[in-house]
Design a protein that fits this description.
The protein is an alpha+beta fold and 300 residues long. 18% of the residues lie in helices and 29% in strands. The strands form three sheets. Strands 5, 6, 7, 8, 9, 10, 13, 14, 15 and 16 form a ten-stranded mixed beta sheet that branches. Strands 1-4-2-3 form a four-stranded antiparallel beta sheet, with no helix packed on it. β13 and β14 form a beta hairpin.
């Protein structure tokens, strides 16, 4: 990709200019190491070069076949948005995000590798969902987009909204502020703890109850931090675990997974436009709501 240096870039070190393009130190190091990774006016140069207005900075961060990260599989996937830098999908329930032991060709990474067959594809998810959580997943389609979007996520620039069906009927809105840490017995399971406990990470979740019926509640959730299993642990900690969550609550005959859905994501595209994308509720959660008489009209 080529960038033309404007008046604001006059006299800048190339290294500084690249950082202003939101390239991470890791990506800059990678580009320095490959042939024609960084060029100015068609010539390879060091990042100490001084730039002038009108210079053409060329970056070659396209993926290669050697970097491909998943085997293509023809899996159905709903695309909510797509451009040359990003793709946003509505991940179905029970689909893992990454390949792992026992899941080599049935993941979101495999589905997108198939969608982009014919070009090298490296799977770079910006937000991640548990296998049994459905909804919006943002994936960067190149290394620069991954750097920009990851920086935005880390700086708190994403707004995320989830929907959950919880055990028990309750009402109102509030904020759960409880630190989380791994339990001593597991590297997976989390528990609430004090902020000053060893291994503690600050965690905050906002919630608003939309409807209650049949011993269940439909709840809108706003994770202000992004800790592992945060929503599941926080809801269980107030006595309303997510229905079907057999890790922090109990299994359910009404749904074979935790009834948790990443409904909405607001973020800034690489080009600078702020957008909001919404994933409709999947059938299994809709069927659960109908079975207990929960009104889902207020969910959207």
């Amino acid at each position: 990709m080529d960038f033309t240096v404007g008046a604001e870039g006059e006299g800048l070190l190339l290294r500084t200019y690249l950082r202003r393009l939101h390239l991470s130190s890791r990506l800059i190091s990678h580009l320095k190491a490959i042939e024609s990774g960084i060029e100015v006016n068609g010539e390879r140069c060091t990042v100490r070069r001084i730039l002038h207005m009108g210079d053409i900075v060329s970056l070659r961060y396209e993926d290669s076949e050697q970097g491909a990260s998943a085997t293509p599989s023809p899996l159905p996937i709903e695309v909510l948005y797509e451009d040359t830098d990003t793709v946003v999908v509505n991940k179905p329930p029970k689909m893992p995000t990454h390949p792992s032991h026992g899941h080599h060709d049935d993941t979101l990474a495999n589905a997108l590798a198939y969608r982009y067959s014919g070009t090298p594809f490296v799977f770079r998810p910006i937000n991640r969902l548990d296998r049994n959580t459905s909804g919006v997943v943002l994936v960067a389609r190149n290394a620069r987009a991954a750097s920009i979007l990851s920086d935005e996520l880390q700086s708190g620039g994403f707004d995320k909204t989830y929907l959950a069906v919880c055990d028990g009927e309750f009402s109102g809105a509030g904020r759960i502020i409880k630190a989380l840490r791994r339990t001593e017995e597991s590297i997976i399971v989390r528990e609430t703890c004090r902020e000053d406990d060893t291994g503690a990470s600050h965690a905050e979740t906002g919630y608003r109850v939309l409807a209650s019926a049949g011993g269940k509640s439909l709840v809108k959730l706003f994770p202000y931090t992004g800790r592992t299993h945060q929503l599941r642990v926080h809801l269980a900690s107030i006595g309303h675990p997510i229905t079907g969550d057999d890790l922090y609550g109990k299994a359910s005959d009404l749904i074979p997974r935790q009834a948790l859905h990443a409904q909405m994501l607001t973020f800034t595209l690489v080009g600078g436009e702020r957008i909001t994308l919404t994933a409709p509720l999947p059938d299994d959660i809709l069927n659960l709501c109908r079975a207990v008489g929960l009104d889902t009209d207020s969910a959207f």
